[in-house]
């Protein structure tokens, strides 16, 4: 109803029939499977039943279902582009949703991928950027997920950033809140919350920490504190000390040279 029906001609050489009632939100089109022209969901077809890519249902403000791939191509700069617009006066926005619905989910399943391709100067197409979402742990009571970003470094696709179950890793899967694998440069201040520490790990690890009113160098495997500074700027050295010339108060508990 509500359509102005026109005359449609069957494809050359076909023996099918013309059917259709002009159903709302449907279009008149060639059905390669049934061999007729009739109203149905909007679709694109190369006239073979296996190539149908169907848009089903209402395309005006409701759901659109696509079975198969959707490809948009343009030779015009900045096109094609996709815009999602929400004009409601509330606090909600437009949404882009990826879903992976499985009857047998498993740890490590990917839930979505976003690819960005480009050519190098040898005309080789490269997967320049990859973003993927992962179900790290599908256990209902302890569900965890990951978001991983890949870039190319020296012509090798490299995991560059990973958001992993509340942790952040740069160049590494993090095991703490923020892990970095590689030489790093900081261009501003680094603030360590009071009572927290900086720790060098591996073997007999060492730690810089604030304990009460003291700044201490702490040996983790023995609990020894060979060096500390108090709030009066007095330094205390425990053990053999060599080559130190104090300019203020100093406390050497053993030998000093």
Question: Would you kindly provide a written description of the structure presented here, covering whatever features stand out?
Answer:
- There is one protein chain.
- The protein has strands at residues 17-18, 27-31, 36-40, 43-44, 53-56, 65-67, 109-119, 125-137, 144-153, 156-164, 167-170, 178-180, 197-200, 206-211, 214-219, 227-229, 235-237, 250-252.
- With 257 residues, it is mostly beta strands.
- Mean pLDDT is 78; it is low at 42-58.
- It is 0% helix and 37% strand.
- The chain has a six-stranded mixed β-sheet, with no helix packed on it.
- β10 (156-164) and β11 form a beta hairpin.
Q: Roughly how many Å apart are the termini?
A: 102 Å
User: What composes the largest sheet?
Assistant: 6 strands, mixed
Whole-number mean pLDDT = 78
What is the percent of helical residues? under 10%
Question: Which secondary structure elements does this structure contain, and how are they paired or packed?
Answer:
Blueprint: E1 17-18, E2 27-31, E3 36-40, E4 43-44, E5 53-56, E6 65-67, E7 109-119, E8 125-137, E9 144-153, E10 156-164, E11 167-170, E12 178-180, E13 197-200, E14 206-211, E15 214-219, E16 227-229, E17 235-237, E18 250-252
Parallel strand pairs: 1-3, 11-12, 17-18
Antiparallel strand pairs: 2-3, 4-5, 5-6, 7-8, 8-9, 9-10, 10-11, 13-14, 14-15, 15-16, 16-17
